[in-house]
């Protein structure tokens, strides 16, 4: 329970806007504002401006408003925006600039909570004498996350540490945001093509309690750190201390993937992509876990050439590793065995028993998605991502009808979303790599 004095303090200087009415009003302003601009755009078309120019202007303003609201609200709204950020590569080039800028800002920027509020949370979680645990503590946040902010500090033994402190009211904000965002899922679907928004929101809601308890995140991080201890390609910072709303881990400095995306050289982009793909496909085998929050803010390239991975609030447990069936489906698609592939898809629930589909149509729909496995080195580009998004989103296309008739079983939702997110980052990196070699090494069922 929070006493009345704390409640007044929170209202006067909140880390997250906590009142449901206020948060709902901000989120509700999104469809109204976008609809209003659409009406204005229709009027400008009547006065002679081209549809392309008007649509580009509308999309730019819609993206700006969308991510400004999401970033200001933090909580579930910001988390949803971060989840969308990896699909930026699929946005057409003429509309991509405002999305790219807004999404990059959203990955790391949000208004910080006041120092006194941060100290209150630390005292509640680490004890009233929490300052004795640190030799130094910087009150100015070094980074912001969806439900917390990160401070740089020095642990009492001299180690440089990162201290993630959860925003007061994060639980209320998450629940309120996700309820409201689900109401507007069709709007977001139109703004971010090639993305299934409603299942993404449902998944975020289902995993909410895991992310709110930093002890779960700390346990996930410890398991990853143990699995990759001493690895020459991947570094997972070790956990120093944890509590339900505070987690302290070793501080690591490196080049964020967002900076590499914005201005990295060809060799740096390719290596960053290779390391990400290696981590994604090897984690289920090495740690029996899958890092399930793939956006550029969670990855850094270190000076020694290793990939540093942070933020383990969203992690999938895969006690048996990656499903063997996934590798089998990849292999059957590459071998052109459309009938065998169709039977596997039906057995796994991708084709519902009451749905009639042609095996060759399903094969044609799926084949472009395994294109990265057909070449010794595949170049992941925004153009390729945009082509796939247009192919799946064009209602005149036969592939659209085939895709709409397929089903995504619940047990495959997370793997599908995380893999799509990782591919989205590879396309943002414009990375060229031998992804087939990585899949052959780590994905069960593929090389059988």
Automatic annotation (TrEMBL):
It comes from the Bacteria. Signal peptide: none annotated. GO terms for molecular function: ATP binding; transferase activity. The keyword Transcription regulation does not apply. Pfam families: ABC1. Residues 105-328 form the ABC1 atypical kinase-like domain. SUPFAM superfamilies: Protein kinase-like (PK-like). Keywords: ATP-binding, Nucleotide-binding, Transferase. Belongs to the protein kinase superfamily. ADCK protein kinase family. This is ABC transporter ATP-binding protein. The lineage of its organism: Bacteria, Bacillati, Actinomycetota, Actinomycetes, Pseudonocardiales.
